[in-house]
Write a structure and sequence with these properties.
Blueprint lengths: L1 H9 L4 H12 L33 H10 L49 E6 L2 E6 L17 E6 L2 E6 L10 E2 L4 E2 L5 E14 L2 E10 L16 E2 L3 E5 L6 E2 L9 E2 L8 E2 L12 E6 L2 E6 L5 E2 L5 E7 L10 E10 L8 E5 L3 E5 L4 E4 L8 E4 L22 E13 L7 E11 L6 E8 L3 E5 L4 E4 L8 E4 L27 E9 L2 E10 L1 E2 L6 E2 L6 E2 L3 E5 L4 E6 L2 E6 L22 E12 L7 E11 L6 E2 L6 E2 L3 E5 L4 E7 L2 E6 L30 E6 L7 E8 L1 E2 L6 E2 L6 E2 L5 E5 L5 E3 L8 E3 L4
Antiparallel strand pairs: 1-2, 3-4, 5-6, 7-8, 8-9, 8-10, 10-13, 11-12, 14-15, 16-18, 17-18, 18-19, 18-20, 21-22, 23-24, 24-25, 24-26, 27-28, 29-30, 30-33, 30-34, 31-32, 35-36, 37-38, 38-39, 38-40, 38-41, 42-43, 44-45, 45-48, 45-49, 46-47, 50-51
Length: 759
């Protein structure tokens, strides 16, 4: 009873249902037990309650108060566990008509629907459960990070990933710390690809270039010259015995030293021995250079011959989580120290890592691949592996030969060629087995070309073709039937003349050379590319005077005066030479005057006077013969009734026109000058012009006649060409050619003639 009383005391709201339970038990009713916090149900066992016997006619409400008043002890076996603390109600007036009812949170799954596509909504134990759907999302932030160089995506409420632009995880041109592509011209390899040399007096300076990155590709170096990574200029050798270094037009060629014969420069470092040939090992030992042959496996050449793409399996050799890889093919050094050996590949380089749910897919080996979701198949089915993944592309799924391929083993003459056969292969993404994705066998020897023939494969599935290198006498072909060396002259068309400076025994000269089209050394092309040009020997074309020096700008050189003054100062040109005699020096504070003409309506002209330069220094000369005059400037326009007069260069003014003597030449009866262009004088015709009135039959020779005329401002009759007047101002007939003749006039001063020949 202690526990019973405690609960009743702690929660008075429990009193009524407890009492009702006791009452119902006495009446033979056993409620179901429940632990719901809101309603308490219990089922007492073996409870014997003595209830007074009532007459059948007795009133129920008369008995109920006694029962409520005389509640027997509840046996200890009745366990009542209520989680909430309840206080008992002191006085219960009477039993309510309706007992409290338990209402469940849900009955069916539909009741729990929350409109969220990313949850599974279920009703379990009268409670709603909302279980998240794996891989479902509302936005990318709901998805797990997909890995390196991948960004989470949320499409149609499904998590996915997309490549991050300009992001990389590995590769020779990938900054793996920043996971971004290296900038253009970043070093890519340690192997030298080019050299340049320059002269500094007697010292020879040089630098070398390595293959660089292009700022876009991460897996391979760039073969573009613009992306080379150059070292700093450093001294590499020195000319002995006081001789000077002589720069060559081709900066890749090691300079010589002046003198006859030219002494050999002593090297300071290995780079001073570089001969520009990647197929030699150039070493400086005790001031002397040695040039050995590079290993035949050394890759050479600036141009990639072939770029191949492939896949690298994931962890434990699985396709899942693999990587995309690539490698580049270049020519290699031959046994004779030339870049004519069998092609070789750079190491494979990873360009992209696929996720654990993806596999690398490279359908075409000459094009970059992608990371695609793994296709699941039934193990044991055609083209399906035991791991439930599609067999890789080209996995054999047949035995009959469906295709053959051929290849040449080298680009050299007399090359062997090989063959391989293919059977039906799997597609790599399905159960398809066809010749479209063949499974290739091993390459086997199939023959070789003659010693003077080149091997070529027109198409992969066609046998090789052996052709002679070239026909003797053809362009860029030697008498031995081999290609002429690179730079061999193959045409007489002069492409360019270049010049450079030279110095010997204190005398500077300008040397010139000519460039012509040259052979490539690889085929019969007569090329105009810079690397293939044929250059003639340098010859002296100009010797500089004692007061001159030779200056080269680019591939052009010339003798110029030594710079004796500071450009921009008085009497000094922009090139540092003294200004010529009479060039403007300093203002003389003088002004000169003149007239544009002496006719009506002329203009007053002025110009400033400056002292001239001396021509041999920065000093002015004050000799009037060397004065500098600015251009004449119109400073005043005279009226139509005025004319400009200037007695000397010290003044000029506009004065009224004088009245002439009536009846005199070019003077009318009112004493005014006749207008300019009025015919005058007795000299007759001074100029005649001719032309034809038509080019058809029956034409005529026409003429214009010109006479002297008045000038308009004086009683002068001018026969100057500019003053001649056309009178009368119409074309006159000089000669009619008649209906059977044509008019012939070859020019305005040709008198012309008539004949029967059409013009």
């Amino acid at each position: 009873m202690a526990r019973w009383g405690q609960k009743m005391h702690e929660n008075p709201s429990l009193a009524l249902p407890v009492l009702l339970g006791v009452l119902l038990a006495a009446c033979g009713t056993t409620p179901a037990a429940s632990t719901d916090n809101d309603v308490l149900y219990f089922q007492p066992q073996d409870i014997n309650i003595d209830v007074p016997t009532q007459h059948p006619d007795a009133q129920t409400d008369a008995v109920l108060p006694d029962i409520l008043t005389d509640v027997p002890d509840v046996p200890a076996e009745v366990a009542i566990d209520v989680s909430e603390t309840i206080d008992i109600v002191p006085d219960v007036p009477d039993v309510p008509d309706v007992a409290e009812v338990y209402v469940p949170e849900c009955v069916t799954d539909t009741t729990c629907a929350d409109s969220d596509v990313c949850t599974v909504d279920l009703c379990a134990n009268d409670k709603c459960l909302h279980t998240p759907v794996p891989g479902c999302c509302h936005n990318p932030a709901d998805c797990a990070p997909p890995g390196t160089c991948k960004a989470a995506t949320c499409v149609n409420n499904q998590c996915g990933s997309a490549p991050v632009a300009n992001c990389c995880a590995s590769g020779v041109c990938c900054d793996t710390v920043k996971q971004s592509t290296k900038v253009a011209q970043s070093p890519c390899t340690d192997a030298a690809i080019a050299f340049e040399f320059s002269c500094q007096g007697a010292d020879i300076w040089g630098r070398r270039a390595e293959l660089g990155c292009d700022g876009k590709q991460t897996s391979a170096c760039s073969g573009n010259i613009a992306n080379y990574s150059w070292t700093q200029w450093l001294p590499v050798a020195s000319c002995p015995n006081g001789s000077l270094c002589q720069t060559t037009i081709d900066k890749s060629q090691f300079p010589a030293c002046s003198g006859a014969p030219a002494p050999t420069p002593g090297c300071i470092s290995d780079i001073g021995c570089e001969d520009g040939n990647p197929c030699t090992t150039d070493t400086c030992t005790a001031g002397s250079c040695t040039h050995g042959l590079a290993d035949t496996a050394t890759l050479c050449g600036n141009t990639a011959l072939y770029t191949e793409y492939g896949c690298l399996n994931g962890p434990a050799g699985d396709l899942a989580g693999g990587s995309q890889i690539t490698r580049v093919q270049y020519a290699s050094c031959g046994a004779q120290g030339k870049c004519d050996g069998a092609p070789g590949f750079t190491p494979w380089t990873v360009t992209q890592d696929c996720q654990a749910t993806e596999k690398c897919d490279v359908p075409i080996s000459t094009e970059p691949g992608t990371c695609t979701l793994i296709s699941v198949c039934k193990p044991g089915a055609q083209c399906c592996g035991a791991d439930g993944q599609w067999a890789p592309t080209g996995t054999a799924c047949g035995s009959a030969t469906v295709a053959s391929q051929y290849q040449c083993t080298s680009a050299a003459k007399g090359s062997a060629y090989s063959k391989r056969d293919g059977v039906n292969g799997c597609s790599g993404t399905s159960a398809q087995c066809s010749a479209v994705t063949p499974s290739w066998g091993n390459w086997t020897a199939a023959g070789s070309c003659a010693f003077n023939e080149l091997c070529s494969v027109p198409v992969n599935n066609a046998p090789p073709v052996c052709t002679a290198v070239c026909a003797p006498g053809a362009a860029c072909c030697t008498n031995a039937g081999d290609w002429a060396d690179q730079g061999t002259k193959c045409a007489d068309a002069l492409l360019k003349s270049v010049s450079k400076c030279s110095s010997a025994n204190g005398v500077e000269t300008v040397l010139s050379s000519q460039l012509f089209p040259g052979c490539t050394g690889l085929d019969g092309t007569c090329s105009t590319d810079t690397a293939n040009l044929s250059q003639s020997a340098y010859t002296i074309v100009k010797t500089c005077q004692s007061y001159e020096k030779c200056v080269a700008t680019g591939d052009t050189a010339d003798c110029i005066l030594n710079a004796p003054c500071e450009p921009g100062t008085q009497c000094c040109t922009a090139s540092g030479q003294f200004a010529p005699l009479g060039a403007q020096c300093a203002s003389a504070n003088k002004t000169q005057y003149s007239c544009s003409n002496n006719m009506a309506g002329g203009a007053v002209l002025t110009r400033d006077v400056s002292y001239g330069c001396s021509g041999g220094s920065i000093q002015c000369t004050y000799d009037p013969a060397n004065y500098y005059y600015s251009p004449w400037v119109d400073t005043q326009d005279c009226q139509s009734t005025e004319a400009c007069t200037s007695p000397d260069l010290t003044s000029a003014v506009c004065t009224s026109l004088q009245v002439c003597v009536p009846g005199s030449i070019c003077c009318d009866g009112s004493g005014n000058f006749m207008p300019k262009g009025t015919k005058c004088g007795t000299q007759g015709v001074l100029k005649t012009l001719y032309e034809c009135d038509t080019t058809a039959l029956g034409g005529s020779i026409l003429k214009q006649e010109y006479y002297a005329s008045c000038v308009g401002t004086a009683a002068n009759c001018s026969n100057a060409a500019a003053d001649l007047v056309w009178d009368p101002p119409v074309w006159l007939t000089k000669q009619a050619c008649g209906p059977q003749n044509y008019c012939h006039v070859t020019g305005p001063t040709d008198p012309g003639l008539c004949n029967q020949t059409p013009p």
